[in-house]
Amino acid sequence: MGSTNESASAQEKQPLFSFGIISDVQYADIPDGRSFIGVPRYYRHSILVLQRAVQNWNHHKKLKFVINLGDIVDGFCPKDQSLNAVKKVVNEFDKFNGPVYHLIGNHCLYNLPRKQLLPLLKIPGVDDHAYFDFSPIPEYRFVVLDGYDVSAIGWPQDHPKTLEALNFLHEKNPNSEKNSPSGLVGLERRFLMFNGAVGKEQLEWLDGVLQEASNLKQKVVICCHLPLDPGTSSPEALLWNYDQVMDVIHAYNCVKLCLAGHDHKGGCSIDSHGIHHRTLEAALECPSGRDAFGYVDVYDDRLSLVGTDRMHSTDMCFKLQANC
Ligand SMILES: Nc1ccn([C@@H]2O[C@H](COP(=O)(O)O)[C@@H](O)[C@H]2O)c(=O)n1
Ligand SMILES: O=P(O)(O)OC[C@H](O)CO
């Protein structure tokens, strides 16, 4: 039998809670294809990956919730099938025995306008915005950002946010095809139509949430479809104003991890302030029988992503902790 000390240390190793993760399912009932740069995309198989993820999460039994990092359906989905495709994927997520928090991605917005999409995904945003926060236990807060707040996709064509985004792209990207990074150099290559920005009001909201979390001594996990750190992403996939968002985040010490999707190959980095960034490997890019999903064990001093198959496991210890 173990001593009291041994059982105390075994207890310390139990996570405070755990949650499931998946990104870029991009389901469509169409034959396999490829990305612009030739990476295979398995549009029909991706929903099988999601089904296996939900089985795995339910089997785990202790996951408090699931986060979908965005892009549940693909832009190539025939538009007369968009609504049914979104409902079909949401229905698979709903088989998880707990809450599911969805983020929007560019491919969701190619299929349905925000007004229609947000209620289907049960996103609790205000005025068709898709940012919100929740606190699963008093010690932790999750902040979901809307990376397509300022965007040329998803809002009505004459909406001020569409016009702001088109003006911005006109200024930053000289190509007539605004999804082309041709001629753009380094981090400028993010100024593409399939990306977007966090608007001024959302930045102020984020500042207020992080202030409150700091006052409450909460640790914060940020979730955004678009990556926020050049170290974890190709330049072409970054949020337009990732630097402004990170300036707000860096003004506080509460944020421990930023989770993202969009850049399908996945990646991880630790920024200059010791914040972990993890971009998730896409479910869409799993060939037959392969998987990409996982769950995160949450501790006082670290977050541990336990990945399945193509989703790599990542141990993310907080700054100033020994042995990290
Ligand atoms: N280097 C690139 C990448 C993309 N495009 C354009 O974006 C569209 C979407 O790209 P996917 O990665 O989803 O295939 C693509 O159809 C191109 O129009 C580009 O021009 N240059
Ligand atoms: O999922 P997509 O088609 O928007 O692709 C995004 C690219 O991976 C960004 O580099």
Automatic annotation (TrEMBL):
Its EC number is 3.6.1.13, 3.6.1.16, 3.6.1.53. It catalyses: ADP-D-ribose + H2O = D-ribose 5-phosphate + AMP + 2 H(+); CDP-choline + H2O = phosphocholine + CMP + 2 H(+); CDP-glycerol + H2O = sn-glycerol 3-phosphate + CMP + 2 H(+). Keywords: Hydrolase, Metal-binding, Zinc. InterPro entries: Calcineurin-like_PHP, Metallo-depent_PP-like, MPP_ADPRM. It comes from the Eukaryota. Residues 19-265 form the Calcineurin-like phosphoesterase domain. It is an enzyme of class 3 (hydrolase). Its cofactor is Mg(2+). GO terms for molecular function: 2',3'-cyclic-nucleotide 2'-phosphodiesterase activity; ADP-ribose diphosphatase activity; CDP-glycerol diphosphatase activity; manganese ion binding. The keyword Hydrolase applies. The keyword Disulfide bond does not apply. Belongs to the ADPRibase-Mn family. Monomer. This is Manganese-dependent ADP-ribose/CDP-alcohol diphosphatase. It comes from Quercus lobata.
